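Students often ask why we bother encoding 3D structure as a string. The short answer is that it lets us treat folding as translation between two languages. Here is a chain of 257 residues written in the first language.
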Amino acid sequence: MRPHDPHTGEAIERDEVRKGYEYDRGQFVTFTPEELRALDVESSKTIDIATFIPRAEVEPLYFNAPYYVYPDGPVAIEPYRVIAAAMTDSGMAGLGRLTLSRRERMVMIEPRGAGMGLITLRAAEEVRSADFGRFDGELDAEAVAIAAMIIKRKTGAFDPATFRDRYQEALRELIEAKIKGLPVKAGPAIQPPQVLDLMAALKRSLAQERGEPPAKPKRKAVADRRQHNLLLPVSGGAREKPAPAVTRASTRRRKKA
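And here it is in the second language, the structure alphabet:
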């Protein structure tokens, strides 16, 4: 990361670098280190709890980063345990403020077994509001019923150990191959199939859950390119049996003797 002029490429000394904010395209206001230090919020190890709310009322979209909270010394253990037990019994969580890395954050404190956890929360302007109005309308009752059956069959318990970061695993394998000097072959790009028929996709997924063999796609009817049957005219009354219909492929001229 070499500081340089983006227009000329000329190197810039570290002491010439300034922090600033681009308020318009190509227009900046700059700040001195003293001006930025004056904005620092007083750091404290104390969590200032302002209010208690039902834990279920906190929207998970506002969750940012989780932490564990421990008492600061033996004297704080008893109050720590008392507050945790009281929040567990009431189903409440505490909302407060804490300064982390020179930034004041809103945090939520909640009991975690014999201890407590802390989750930093995003501010209101950091979370976009949802716009689901265009999804209104009636649903196919059969499709919903099949989806409910799939959900019921796939119901389980949350176990984060079962989820793997496949990209990280593949990256580690690539690193090991590079270290050992092994040839690396690029795998084929996987294209997920496009779901064109929701009902068919749901039924196919339900069949897989039941262990049923996949249904074979119906073959399209192929147009018969052969000549249609030739109906031969028959003379005579109604008692005479009509001549059979024959096709060109089965009709041959007899050779004259």
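Translate back mentally: The beta strands are 19-24, 27-31, 48-54, 63-69, 92-100, 103-112, 115-121. Keep this in mind for the problem set.
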